[in-house]
Amino acid sequence: RDLSALFEQAAERLPALLPAASKEQLLYLYARYKQVKFGTCNTPKPSFFDFEGKQKWEAWKALGDTSPHQAMQEYVATVKKLDPSWNPQTTEKRGKEGKTAFGGPVVSSLYQEETIREEDKNIFDYCRENNIDYVTKAIRSKKVDVNVTDEE
């Protein structure tokens, strides 16, 4: 198969593999993708506070004068490593029987604690909120037993 076509197929396959890939693997793939599409890194280094941008830039810059051909080979090999069942000879638009364990939508969000109504809060809730004023007032009032345990 033509390496360029194989590379494009691997790039199309990658989004479904994101949950299985480590941060290092993603940086590795990013750098090779940029090397293939844009050549040697010639952009200015991102600012100190752009941590993700800096990591990406450093990964790409580290490739130096690596040839696009070699970068494509390494990219395809890594995608195959992430999904050994991936067969670039078959098309990705298959029915249910062709789905891999990595398929399906992926949704990610930051952890969010449930909100508790003010009247339902106890001293532990105020501690979690770091509400020092309320905790201090509650302890001084002697109306709250600070030695009682909650479900956690």
Q: Biggest sheet: strands, sense, closure? A: none
Poorly predicted regions: 94-113
- Roughly how much helix do the residues carry, as a percent range? 40-55%
**CATH topology descriptor of the domain at 23-88:** Acyl-CoA Binding Protein
Shape: elongated
Distance between the termini: 58 Å
> Averaging pLDDT over every residue, what do you get?
80
DSSP, total strands: 0
Strand content: under 5%
State the CATH class of the domain at 23-88. Answer: Mainly Alpha
Q: Topology as H/E string?
A: HHHHHH
What is the CATH-assigned architecture of the domain at 23-88?
A: Up-down Bundle
Class by alpha and beta content? mainly alpha
Q: What's the Cα radius of gyration?
A: 25 Å
InterPro entries: Acyl-CoA-binding_protein (IPR000582), Acyl-CoA-binding_sf (IPR035984), FERM/acyl-CoA-bd_prot_sf (IPR014352)
GO molecular function: fatty-acyl-CoA binding
Pfam families: ACBP (PF00887)
Main location: cytoplasm
